[in-house]
Structure formats: C-alpha cells, structure tokens
Amino acid sequence: FVDALAASRLMHLAAQEHQDIPFELLVELIQPERSAAIHPLFQVLFVLQNNEEGDIALNGLTVDDFDYERNSKAKFDITLTAREIDGELWFSWGYCCDLFSAESMNTVAEAFIQLLSEIVATPQLPLSQLPLMAQPTSSGCYSPDMIDNTYLHQHVSAYSASQGTQIAIRYQERALSYD
C-alpha cells in the first residue's frame, strides 16, 4: 500500500499543476465517448474537505451550514466525501439510487472500512493482498471458499456457469439468463 500511495501522491501533485484548465476544454481535448447516461470522464468521485470552516458574520443576517450532500441528487454513481474534524476523518457516501440500493452501499462502506483497517494494520502489504471483506455478506457476493489465487472474473464465470438458465437480470418485460 505504501508504494501505491507514494505513486498516487506523485500523480495527483502532477495533476494539480493543471487544475486551472477548464473542464470543458479537457473534455474537448480527451474526446471521450459521450453518453447522456454517464459522466464523460468518471463515475466515482472522492472529495476531501479539509479546509477550515469559519463563521460568517453578516450585518443582520444569520448564516447556518447547509448539509449539501443530504439535500442533493447524486451527480455521479458514487461520491465519497471525507471531512477532517478535530483531527479525525469522517466519511459520507452519496450514490445514485437508480444504480445502488442502501444495502449494497452499506456493503461497499463496510468493505471500505475493512480495507482502511487492514491498511492501518499492515501498510507495507501490497494492495493486491489487502482483503476487502472480513466475512461473507448476506448478498452472497463473497464466501470464505473464494480465498484462493483465482481472479474475480474467474469467480464470476464459474458462478455464471453454475446458474445455467436462472434469470441473471430483469428489466421491465425483458430478462437475461446466465447462459
């Protein structure tokens, strides 16, 4: 993890040298495949709010904090916001309700907490060896017998093959099976 963190730090510092480039120009230069259904460059946003918040005093006007995240529609598939409060990081998740259920986001959040716990306990461990889940979830996405040297796509393929003609996904009147 320590090596990945150092590489990520260098990449982000280099990227910040170009933060004044207008977003529209960046999209024009990169020319990503466009779709009205998804953001042109990314679907997951991480925000670190570590600026000091001061009181705003205006003559005759009371100003309160507005919890933007609780009162807004998701602009991205997932948004993870970290706030530094009294030397601690507090996390909040925003997500597109059309894509994720509260249960699935709780699973993601639990896996994230597990990952952070493992990083703190063993920071020298490579990212590929850090576990994401301590125990199986009720969704059946993970089971202890999956701990081996196979890749995720191999597990997905094996699971799909074992399901045969079972319905994999259903949307309105259409359904697709695993086979």
Largest sheet: 3 strands, mixed
Tell me the fraction of residues in β-strands, as a range: 15-25%
Run of helices and strands: HHEEEHHEE
- Spatial strand sequence of the major β-sheet: 1-2-3
Produce a short descriptive summary.
With 179 residues, the protein is of the alpha+beta class.
Could you describe the 3D structure shown?
Helices cover 31% and strands 17% of the residues. The protein has 179 residues and is of the alpha+beta class. Strands 1-2-3 form a three-stranded mixed beta sheet, with no helix packed on it. The protein has a two-stranded antiparallel sheet with strand order 4-5. The chain is extended, with a radius of gyration of 21 Å. It has helices at residues 2-16, 23-30, 102-121, 152-163; strands at 44-49, 78-85, 88-95, 167-171, 174-177. The protein has four helices and five strands; from the N terminus they run ααβββααββ.
